[in-house]
Each structure stands twice: as C-alpha cells, then as structure tokens.
Write a structure and sequence with these properties.
Layout lengths: L1 H20 L3 E3 L3 E5 L5 E3 L1 H4 L5 E8 L5 E11 H8 L14 E7 L4 E5 H5 L6 E9 L5 H11 L3 E3 L1 E4 L12 E8 L17 E5 L5 E3 L8 E9 L3 E12 H8 L7 E7 L4 E5 H5 L8 E3 L14 E3 L13 E8 L6 E5 L10 H7 L4 E3 L2 H6 L1 H4 L8 H4 L14 H24 L4 E5 L10 H6 L5 E4 L4 H9 L9 E4 L1 H6 L1 H10 L2 E4 L6 H9 L7 E6 L8 E6 L3 H8 L8 E5 L5
Parallel strand pairs: 1-9, 2-11, 12-20, 21-23, 21-24, 22-23, 25-26
Antiparallel strand pairs: 2-3, 4-5, 5-8, 6-7, 6-11, 8-10, 12-13, 14-15, 15-18, 16-17, 16-20, 18-19, 26-29, 27-28, 27-29
C-alpha cells in the first residue's frame, strides 16, 4: 500500500512539473562545439542547466511579422560556452579573432552565422543558448484565450536567443552544432610603407562588384563613438559621419541571408568580419558606418575610408584604410559523411562522429545501427538499410541460386539505386550521414556505395575499428617486431607470398573476418609458420558484455576455437598471429 501511495505521489509531482512548463520543453540529444577550438565539447540542455544562468525576455516576431509568443528564456551566454571550448587559431600573422565566424545549425538544417565580435564585444545577455522558457501571459482573460496555443507551444531546446535583434529570424530552436571557423586564414599582415588605399571594392557574393572612391551623394548618418581599444584602452569620444554599410552592400546586390558574412580588410591585411544579422536584423546595424573624413594620402596607414561600429564595446573592428569588402556566403554544399560509429558498444562512438552526424539532414544505416544510435540520430529520416537493398556477398542465401555474373549485375544495379537515393537527397540541399560499423576505411560494409560516390560528394569520418578494440583487449605492443599487417582470409589466399614474407620477418599478422574461414585459413598459415607460433582470437571486441580472448598456438588453434567459441560467433572476431603475442 505504501509503495502504491509513493507511486501516486511521484506521478502527481510530475504532473505539476509538466503543468508548470506548459508541456513546452522539447529536448534534443545535445549540441557539439567544434572547429577552431582547443577542446571540442558536447553539451545537452541538462548540462546547461548546471551552469549559472541568466534570463532574458524575447517578444518573438519574425521579419514576416509572424508572432510566436513572448517568453522569459533562461540560458547560458554563448561566449561562456565558447570559452569552455577555447577558440584557437592556427599559426597566423593575424592573431586577433576578428576574422572568426561562429556557424550554428539546428536539427532541421537551418543555419545562422555570427561574427566573433558580436558575441564577445557585446554584453553577455545579448546572445545566449537557452534551456528553459516561461511564457509571458496576458493579464486579461481574452488575451490568454487568444494566445493560449502560441504561448504553450512546444519549444525545442537548446535554443539560440539573440535578444537585441528587432526580428527573431536568427533565434533558432533545437540547435545541434556550433562550428568555429576562421575566414580566409591565408591572408597575411603586410608591413609595407605604401599602404594607403584611395578606394575599395565590394565584391564576392554580389550581383555587381562596386568600387568606391568617393562617397559624395550617398545618404549619410552620424554617430558618436567611445573609442576603446583592447590594446591601448580609451582614446576618447569621436563624432563620425559616414555612409551606412548596409547601403553600400545593397548597391552591390550583396548576398543577404543568415549564412552571409562581410569581411572588411585594410590594405595591410588587418581585417574584421560582420554578420548579416548584426547589419540587417539588429536595429543598431543601420549605424555601422563607412567614413571618409580622412582623404589625404599623407595619412599613411589610416587611409581614406574607415569602418566604425558604435555599439561594439571594443573598437578593434574599426578598420582604417579599407581596401576591400568581401561578401562571403558560408552555406556549404551538401555532402555524404561516411561515418564510422564504432565497432560495438555505443560508448565507442567518438565526439568527432557526433559532430558530423549533427551536420547531416538524413541517415543511411542498418536497422541495427538505427536502433542502437536512435538517441543521436533523433528526428533524421533513415533513407534505407544498405544491407537490405544491396546483396552483401556470394554467401547471401537470397542470391545463392543465381550465377556469379548475375549476382554482380544485380549488386551493381542495387548500388546504383542506393546512390540515386542519396544523390536525390543531396540535390535537395541536404547532407547525408552514411553510418558504418568500425572504421569505414578498413573493410567497410558499404564499399560499393562509397566507391560510387565522387570524391567531392563525400567525406570520411573514421571510427574505432575492431582492430583498435582487439588490440586493447590483448594489451600488448602489436608492432614489437616493427610492423603489423592487416589482411583478410581471401586476400591471403590470393597472395600466399604475403604470408610467407610476414612469417619470415616475425611481424604481427592481424586478420579480419577470419572465423568463418578458419578451416581453410589454418592450413595456409601452417605452410609458413611453425606450429608453436602464438595465435590469439579476439571475439566480439568492443562488446563489453560478450568480448573474450582465446589464446593458443597455431597447432591448437582449430581445436581451441571449436571448444571455446563453438557456434556462438562466426563473424565478429579478429585473428592475430605472431611472436608479439607471447
């Protein structure tokens, strides 16, 4: 009876919690921070809730004037999260982070790009990653009735909140990845005497490149700037007159979307990035000016035209002597990420794999992988199971009755169908994650599909191979004689001279997929190895509940594997041969 009351009490508490939240919380599997960082990390909404949080109010109206409610969002400043990952540039002559961009993506493929400075040169509450929300309910009953569904709608967390934007186009639910990238890292700082630029060009992703040498006749604005640099500190108050940068970009027909950034560069290579959002969605963006007050060549480095961003808390982005403004769209072409999820337990999946899985919009994988990694796959559709679509091998019972040539023809046809489905998805602008066991570059399961994709269409993301897991089980230096040779029973049968060479040198031979070929494999090995040569079977390497080692010699290998393995496993086993096993 006591247990019954306890259960009812717990249910009651949960009900109160859900009512308090209005059933509004929809949590994702988390998001990753990667790219130009020292420490890639992965966080969930639950992780964020453990940090000290701040609360901001957001009245959600997008640029199409659609209202999505008013909420108090609780979250963590994005700059605090990026500080955890520690942004790090490779060796460069330009050490500042002013050319760094932050690419944020959500679960349905929407992408937003922020400049580093709009995160770090503003107050922390302006850009946060939210993990909770509470609606701002109207006081009058008729207001609550009208907006009840909107204010109690499900919200996907973690959510990107940009509090100062006029419109909430950049506020994005269910974020899955944050990529830190350096824009044009190859540009070098040039210390030369002749650095004065009398004009600059707006180019890149524009309809018509525009060269500006005179701003006479352009609409002008004025601003007051508290000039405070990160190196020398406060320089005083400056009154600036200039042309809004947005007007110059509009004249050139510059790309204007959430993935676009604008790189302003001095003639000596000093540069700063601005994002589309801070120019066109933040009301303060209209006051970002290109000034031309200094038109004397004797001014040297300062040049004629200069960038001024009055609302930055540091004036480092005030580029003087502008030589170019390049419009860059960071929307990447869709790709197939051929990903190794690991050879066994889900705990063997790597952070790098999760980072790339988060960049995909659809998945290709076996039914087994779809079940094991359902939490990480999340909402993404599984296009097909390659094991069901493409014949696996000559031993496949479904195809035993047809000839080898017919089987190969059928396999080629099915591979073509598989690649066609993938390419159709790519043509829709969506990236695909093809999930393989272990490391897809070592005896991958879907080699036919992988090979049929062009190099520019695919990218390999290696995982932990059965070879790595088996080495850890054995716990010895596998290359004690200098080399390790990886092979398969079929390759050794076709090239017995390889076995002879390895045996003669005493190197370790590691054989994939050898258990079902053991009857033919052992006689081949005995031709070149002595019967006393150590042999180790690593069965189900990486499966924590069923992995096991069989240590024996070549003379006793058949008997040992029959007695200790039986019929339990015929595929998942690595075979090692060589004196390093002693």
């Amino acid at each position: 009876m006591r247990k019954k009351y306890l259960t009812l009490f717990c249910c009651f508490v949960l009900l109160l919690i859900f009512q308090a939240k209005g059933w509004s919380a929809v949590f994702s599997s988390g998001f990753s921070i990667s790219g130009a960082v020292k420490q890639p990390i992965r966080l969930t909404s639950e992780d964020l809730a453990r940090f000290q949080s701040i609360t901001v109010r957001l009245n959600e109206v997008d640029s199409e004037k659609n209202y999505s409610g008013a909420f108090h969002y609780k979250g963590i400043p994005l700059r605090a999260i990026l500080d955890l990952a520690h942004i790090q540039k490779e060796e460069s002559s330009f050490a500042k982070f002013l050319d760094v961009c932050i690419v944020i993506r959500n679960a349905v493929g929407k992408q937003v790009v922020l400049s580093w400075a709009e995160v770090f040169y503003r107050n922390p509450a302006e850009v946060i990653i939210a993990f909770d929300a509470a609606p701002v309910m109207p006081v009058l009953p008729q207001g609550r009735e009208k907006w009840n569904n909107t204010l109690n709608r499900p919200i996907g967390f973690p959510k990107l909140i940009i509090a100062n934007d006029l419109y909430t186009d950049r506020c994005m639910e269910s974020i899955v990845s944050i990529d830190v990238i350096v824009l044009n890292p190859s540009i070098k700082i040039r210390n030369t005497d002749d650095q004065y630029a009398s004009s600059f060009t707006v180019s890149g992703a524009v309809k018509t490149p525009v060269t500006i040498s005179d701003l006479t006749g352009w609409p002008r604005e004025s601003a007051t700037v508290k000039v405070t640099g990160s190196l020398k500190g406060y320089h005083g108050v400056q009154n600036v007159s200039g042309v809004p940068l947005v007007k110059l970009l509009e004249k050139a027909g510059a790309a204007m979307d959430l993935s676009t950034v604008y790189l302003v560069t001095h003639s000596d290579g000093y540069r700063a990035v601005l994002s589309f959002g801070e120019l066109f969605l933040d009301p303060a963006g209209e006051r970002i000016l290109i000034a031309d007050g200094n038109d004397k060549p004797s001014a040297g480095k300062e040049g004629r035209f200069s960038l001024h961003i009055p609302h930055d808390l540091s004036s480092d982005r005030n580029v003087k002597g502008i030589a170019s403004i390049e419009v860059v769209n960071l929307k990447k072409s869709p790709k197939v990420y051929i990903i190794g999820v690991g050879c066994a337990d889900t705990s063997l999946i790597t952070l790098n794999v999760l980072n790339y899985l988060n960049k995909a919009d659809a998945v290709v994988c076996s039914e087994d992988i779809a079940n094991q990694y359902a939490f990480y796959i999340g909402h993404r559709p599984v296009l097909f199971d390659p094991f069901k679509l493409v014949p696996k091998s000559a031993e496949d019972s479904e195809h035993k009755k047809i000839s080898h040539s017919e089987r190969e023809k059928l396999k080629a046809q099915r591979v073509g169908e598989a690649v066609g489905i993938i390419r159709e998805t790519l043509n829709q602008g969506k990236s695909v994650a093809l999930l393989e066991y272990g490391d897809p570059t070592i005896y991958g399961s879907f080699r036919g599909i992988n090979a049929a994709l062009a190099d520019h269409e695919k990218q390999y993301i290696p995982g932990i191979s059965a070879f790595n897991a088996a080495n850890a089980m054995i716990g010895r230096e596998m290359a004690c004689k200098g080399s390790i040779v990886l092979s398969s029973p079929w390759a050794l049968k076709e090239n017995p001279s390889l076995v002879k060479s390895v045996a003669a040198k005493g190197d370790t031979l590691a054989i994939f997929m050898g258990l079902r070929e053991i009857e033919n494999l052992i006689p081949l090995l005995k031709k070149y190895y002595s019967g006393a040569t150590p042999v180790t079977f690593a069965i189900r390497a990486g499966y924590s509940n069923s992995k096991r080692l069989i240590k024996t010699t070549l003379d006793k290998a058949l008997e040992a594997v029959r007695n200790e393995n039986g019929e339990k496993e015929s595929w998942l086993g690595m075979i090692y041969v060589g004196s390093c096993l002693e």
